[in-house]
Amino acid sequence: TAFPIRSQQVWRSMIDYKYPSEAVGSDAFEGVLDRYTNSHTTSGNTAVLLQNGDDAYPVMLNLIASAKCRISLETYIIENDETTNTFFSALREAAARGVEVRVLVDAAGFKRGTIAQLNELSNHGIQARIFNPLFMSWTIFRFNNRDHRKILVADGAHAVLGGINVSDDQTGDGKTGWRDTSILVSGPAALDAERVFAQTWEQGGRGF
């Protein structure tokens, strides 16, 4: 076959996939979700809807400012603009007070000049990595293997998940700028988000 192994696996999973027939909310349905997402259902969590940058960015910056142990930030688009400068300043301040800070960005998702900024983060004690650098993408399949996750986890207790990147374009209320949504999750589920971050960090990130 002409398909690489990874593409064969994706194609086979699409063909063999069967929609679960279990009732939504049942224990059986939760078991199906756990199997497909390679995670486990937890209790004791709270979730708050964050609509657009006006809601999400203050929450995210507050999590960075209040973190005591560690911060994990993973995003696709990260611009060379004022919003990025604000986030990077907050991350530098966190590292200065002894917080472990890790930043993972996708190679195709940032603009010219950001690499220098990531190097500058490293100089301040922040661990910064790029997912799947373009110069290492030897095939079209590898080149298009992008990291579109947007995850911020603070102290393994709070996580912001969803579609909001780090960009001036996403500031506003949805009428101005891009329209996007995230969720603030507090509780054991935040550790699942951190586990997903750690997997990508180890498997796809390249340091400086």
Describe this entry's structure for a reader.
The protein has an eight-stranded mixed β-sheet, sandwiched between helices. It starts with a helix and ends with a strand. It has helices at 5-16, 27-37, 52-66, 82-96, 114-123, 140-143, 189-204, and strands at 46-51, 70-75, 100-106, 127-131, 151-154, 158-162, 181-186, 205-207. The protein has seven helices and eight strands. The longest helix has 16 residues, at 189-204. Helix 3 packs parallel to helix 4.
Helical/strand content category: alpha+beta
User: How helix-rich are the residues, as a percent range?
Assistant: 25-40%
The arrangement of helices and strands along the chain is: HHEHEHEHEHEEEHE
Low-confidence stretches: 1-8
Oligomer: single chain
Rg, rounded, reads: 18 Å
- From the spread of the alpha carbons, the general shape counts as globular
Mean pLDDT: 83
